Amino acid sequence: MATETHEATTHSAATDGAAAATTHDAGHAAADAAHGAADAGPGMPQLDFSTFGNQIFWLLVTLVVIYIILSRFALPRIAAVLAERQGTITNDIAAAEDLKAKAVEAEAAYNQALADARVEASNIVAAAKADIQAELDQAIAKADTEIAAKSAEGEKAIAEIRATATAAVKTVSKDVAKELITSMGATADAKTVTAAVTARMKG
């Protein structure tokens, strides 16, 4: 009985040692695998030549998808925006040209109106000057006529006054001469006295 117990104990110890050795070997294998994975891990997948074909295929697929998306959605919108902007620019340029042409026409019309106004003003000034000169000439002629008439009337009045004065002086002179002759005791001949006075007054 004791022998069987000792054999069982020995067998159990051997079994436990074998299991421990197996576990130790498995741990070493796992560690080696981990080290191998760590050694192979740092490389970039894009530079793995074994996957180049797959990478190129998916690159082409991606480019085709991007092209389809751009050609179906983005590019038409961009083209529409560019066309609209080009149309706006064209319309703005046309409007600017139209405004420029209208400005040129307005400037020409202004210059023409200014020239016409200057000519009209010159004509008005010339006409007014001619009218004023005509009125002035008419007034001067009328004044000359009135002055001539007044001068004639004045000369006539002066002549009448002179004639009246001469007659009065002649009469007074004859009377004085007769009185002097009579006072000296002589006979005064009226004809002789008149002739003497007339000759004296004539000088």
From TrEMBL:
Top-level lineage group: Bacteria
Topology within the bilayer: Single-pass membrane protein
InterPro entries for the chain: ATP_synth_b/b'su_bac/chlpt, ATP_synthase_B_chain
Ranges that cross the membrane: 56-75
Biased amino acid composition, Low complexity: 10-25
Keyword Hydrolase part of the UniProt annotation: yes
An MF annotation (GO) of this entry: proton-transporting ATPase activity, rotational mechanism
The entry's keywords: ATP synthesis, Cell membrane, CF(0), Hydrogen ion transport, Hydrolase, Ion transport, Membrane, Transmembrane, Transmembrane helix, Transport
Region (Disordered): 1-25
Record-level GO cellular component terms: endomembrane system; plasma membrane; proton-transporting ATP synthase complex
Gene3D superfamilies, alphabetized: 6.10.250.1580
Subcellular location: Cell membrane; Endomembrane system
NCBIfam families reported in the protein's UniProt record: PRK13454.1
Subunit structure: F-type ATPases have 2 components, F(1) - the catalytic core - and F(0) - the membrane proton channel. F(1) has five subunits: alpha(3), beta(3), gamma(1), delta(1), epsilon(1). F(0) has three main subunits: a(1), b(2) and c(10-14). The alpha and beta chains form an alternating ring which encloses part of the gamma chain. F(1) is attached to F(0) by a central stalk formed by the gamma and epsilon chains, while a peripheral stalk is formed by the delta and b chains.
Function: Component of the F(0) channel, it forms part of the peripheral stalk, linking F(1) to F(0). The b'-subunit is a diverged and duplicated form of b found in plants and photosynthetic bacteria. F(1)F(0) ATP synthase produces ATP from ADP in the presence of a proton or sodium gradient. F-type ATPases consist of two structural domains, F(1) containing the extramembraneous catalytic core and F(0) containing the membrane proton channel, linked together by a central stalk and a peripheral stalk. During catalysis, ATP synthesis in the catalytic domain of F(1) is coupled via a rotary mechanism of the central stalk subunits to proton translocation.
Protein's recorded name: ATP synthase subunit b
Native source species: Litorivita pollutaquae
Lineage per the UniProt record: Bacteria, Pseudomonadati, Pseudomonadota, Alphaproteobacteria, Rhodobacterales
